Amino acid sequence: MKLKISFFNPGIFKQDLRQHGWIGVIYLLCLLFVLPLQMLLILSKDDSYLYYIKDLTNYFEIGRDGQLMFLFTLPVIAGIFLFRYLQTEASVDMTHSFPVKRTVHYVSHIISGIFMLILPIVITAIFTFIITKWDAGFNKVFTFPELLNWIGITSLLTVFLFLLTVLVGMITGISVVQGILTYVVLFLPTGILLLLNANLNRILFGFSSSHSLYENSEVLSPFIRFTEIVYKPFSTVEIIVYCIFTIVFLIAGKILYDRRHLERAGDAIVFPYLKPVFKYGMTFCTMLLSGAYFSSIQNGSTGWLIFGYISGSIIGYIISEIILQKSWRILKPSMAISFGGYSIIIVLIYFSLSTDVFGYEKKLPSLDNIEAVYLENGDYLYQGHYDYELRSSSDPSYIQDVRKLHEAIIQQKHQVIKKADEVYKPTTLLIYKLKNGKEIAREYEFSNKLFSIELKPVIESIEYKKAHFSLNYAAKKANVVEMYSNAPINKNLKLTDPKEIEELKKAIEKDYLAQSYEDITSPGTAWGRIDFSRSNPSPYSEENDYAGMDLKSSYKETEKWLADKNYLSRVKLLPEDIVTIEIKKDNNGFSKEESDINIETYYNELTNKKVEVTDKKLINEVLNKFSDYDEEANYYVKMRFVNGNEWYVVLREKNVPAELLQALK
To answer: How many other C-beta atoms are found inside a 10 Å radius of the C-beta of residue 341?
Structure first.
């Protein structure tokens, strides 16, 4: 007995291949170009290709940018063209006038699309396998399971994107909108978290923009996640999640196809109950984007933040109405009611957040509940706070000092906000690890002098110093050390002797751990820089191959070691390198705006009395106290080197030698 019910129509399948088979051909050519052809190009090089191959870990590293581009375009194009007949009234009426059920149409087109997208992947894999086995270099690096992994991940993402595009196509009646919305959906979760992160940072006092909503949000965007696949392969859980979503897209697309009104072709959103979602979703996103933009360009101003919310909401609402109604004539009384309701909800949300109804800003964990704590004071984003768990401390006294600092910040919230316009405000990050496994993160910007009493025991503690000594976490296997002066003078030193490198590390560590609070936080400019690295580091190594540190005037043990080795004069600016210095007092006080304009010009425009110094002892005192930027400085210094170069720096009055102060009166 023959099965009379079939969900697949060979005629539709053949018609799709004739009409849209070019998509599969282009996909095949693109994949062949970015993988097998790239492998052949690598082989065409001389023996240096072996050095490149040995660092490869998977097939996604070869032509990665090309794979990314083609993987996220061709499946979307296939989803748009295979179901394009739904987007025009003439074609949709004609197609559904035939005695073929919608289920058959849907399934047949889905099979056609998957076939023309998966076949190029299989063919590419065959050519890749041949090249891999043909060359001994590739054969040693890549295994057959790795090729199967490439086939599986590429096929899964291809089908995922294709079915997502089809699902979006069931919601809209315009092909252009289908393409745009598909990419919006791909980035929407990550984008929403990014916008929420940027806005909550402006509203909630202490909100951590670097350790909150946006952290690890790249997994929510297939596009962003694929960019990391080289060094962060898909986990089993991620693969299962993508498989589930792929099945959900397939079923949801079928349900929406069955319920879609064919006469809605040409509408931006074909289902009436989804129009409010589109309208208010677009209004909300535009509001967040506008608020974050105006607040950022106006230095976090609350007034401009609110202006951004209002203008963004109005613009987003109007654009969404124009798209939905396909007309510029959108002004209706119902719009005022609809937008008014949205505005009331947003105002209530903003009011509850800004007044801290939920107690977020005042939340302070008790000492009994804290297992460990991490604190960073300064530009921590450049110091790798991502490994904060390794740098956390469970020392009771340290935890207590950090908590006291946090408590003081909360109590002086208005003082912190009042000084928000200060030129330089170090960022302080606090992360508590609680005994129940949860974490509490807070982030503040304030001048250190505002909380110097609370900061001093924290920053002077061995716990803090060990946690932030970069040589503990990087360049442990360094075999090259380079040192150079920060001044505009050619002074540098390179060390490769293992014994000397180890001795130097110990000297630097001793100096670092001996620093006072003032040494660490003072704006004095370091006299030099030291970089630890490895010769011939692997570009894909997971180990830290580099660490760098500033060399400060307080590093006496380091200077002594360099002097004993007769290296100091080769890296540090010394009085002998300077012909003369000139010093002027600035009655107005130094400002960053002046340094940004041109510190040399500003110095030359000062009409105050100047003193010229050639005494090497006085010059040495200046060299140990100067800074290239200090908002509390009110003395300008011009240095003239023996090589003819000039350098302009600043000094606080307390750091100016008494003899010079007397001469400047």
So the answer is: 11
